[in-house]
Amino acid sequence: MKRYILALAAIILITGIGFISLSNGKTKTVKEGGVLSVNDIQADPYAYKGAVTITGVVADKSRFRNLPQEVFLIIETSEAKICKITGCASFYLPVKYAGNHPREWDEVNVTGSFVEGNLLFKAANVDVLKHLTF
């Protein structure tokens, strides 16, 4: 009887490990309306082909001196709200946009696509959702 219980426990443990390893963070969750967050694309931005919409908060780019004028940075909205500064993000998504740039702390939806072989997101449209204030 003890052997059966031990064997059953081992099978359950192995099955649990299998399920966990299959969902190792590579699944991509799409929010309502097909809008992705900065965290959604952070793990593998090259996996997204074609036009996508990403939401985030415009970050201060003064620390990044090599960025061209037409590029701004966005970070995860929840990370900006927790930190209360835009300079503490673990990941910055560079967005190239030819139109008027939003201000720091603007929550935006950027629609466009990734430049082939580059982390740069080329936006065709930038919609300001709101300006965050603390």
Overall structural class, as computed from helix and strand content, comes to alpha/beta
Number of helices: 3
Q: What's the number of extended β-strand segments?
A: 6
What is the helix/strand order? HEHEEHEEE
Mean pLDDT: 83
Q: Please give the largest β-sheet.
A: 5 strands, mixed, barrel
Strand content: 25-35%
Cα radius of gyration in angstroms:
20 Å
As laid out across the biggest beta sheet, the strand order is 2-3-4-6-5
Ranges where pLDDT stays below 50 over 5 or more residues in a row are 23-32
Shape estimate = elongated
Q: Termini distance?
A: 62 Å
Helix content: 10-25%
What structural keywords apply?
134 residues, alpha/beta, 5-stranded mixed β-barrel, 6 strands, elongated
Question: Nutshell version of this structure?
Answer:
With 134 residues, this protein is α/β, with parallel strands linked by helices.
Description:
The protein is α/β, with parallel strands linked by helices. It has three helices and six strands, in the order αβαββαβββ. It has helices at 2-22, 38-42, 77-83, and strands at residues 35-37, 52-59, 71-75, 93-96, 106-114, 121-131. A five-stranded mixed barrel has the order 2-3-4-6-5. The radius of gyration is 20 Å and the shape is elongated. Mean pLDDT is 83; it is low at 23-32.
